[in-house]
Each structure stands twice: as structure tokens, then as C-alpha cells.
Amino acid sequence: MSIEIDREKCVGCGSCVGICPGGLIRLDDEKACIPQPERCWGCASCVKECSEEAIALFLGEDMGGLGGRMTARQEDTLLFWTLTRPDGTAQTLTVDRRDSNKY
User: Fold this and answer.
1) Where are the alpha helices (DSSP H) in the chain?
2) Can you say how many angstroms the Cα of residue 39 is from the centroid of all Cα atoms in its chain?
């Protein structure tokens, strides 16, 4: 599991750089990039932080995702996780961030 950065959508704000616990993301030509995606922990911090939905969590076949991509969008306390499958179909799950760590 790793992230993918869509440099076309990236606005170069740097939020992902500051939030990545592994320090793996950097700005290159004012756009985010991850030179070593294989080192990504898959924590999704940058996915949640990106207001432009330019960063996606890649769900490879080994994770049962069959190559799908998951992005996140925030509105107030709500977090909208959208899973886009390789065939282009998508499904969104809404989570209240205040409840996201409850077990």
C-alpha cells in the first residue's frame, strides 16, 4: 500500500510535507512528490490533509483493492472517503472525524 500524487491537482501548499510522519513527501517544482513510494507506511495522513484530493491511497491487489484509489475530502467534522475502482465506479463513505478513532 502506498500513495499516489496527482501533480496536476496539486497546488503546492505543502500540507502533506508537514504531516507525513516518515518525512517521505517533498515539494519538487512547487508540487508534491514522493521519491520513494515503497517506503510509505500507508498511514493516510497526507490523504486526509490534502484539500485538493491530489493524493490517493493506492489499494493494490495484495490489499484486496484490485488497483483502486482512495481519496478523502473534509467538511467541518465530516470526512468523506471515496474509493474509485479501476473501472471508474466510485463509492463514498462518510465518517464523523470526532468518532473516527472509536472502537
Assistant:
1) 15-19, 45-49
2) 15
**7, 18, 41, 74: which is the annotated catalytic residue?**
41
**81 counts as catalytic:** no
Pair 47, 3: CB distance under 8 Å: yes
Measured distance CA(70)–CA(83) in Å, rounded: 4
pLDDT of residue 11: 97
Burial class of 102 by CB neighbour count within 10 A (0 to 12, 13 to 18, 19+) = exposed
Instruction: Between 21 and 42, name the one with better pLDDT.
Output: 21
The pLDDT value given to residue 49: 93
Domains of the chain (ranges, CATH numbers):
2-99 (3.30.70.20)
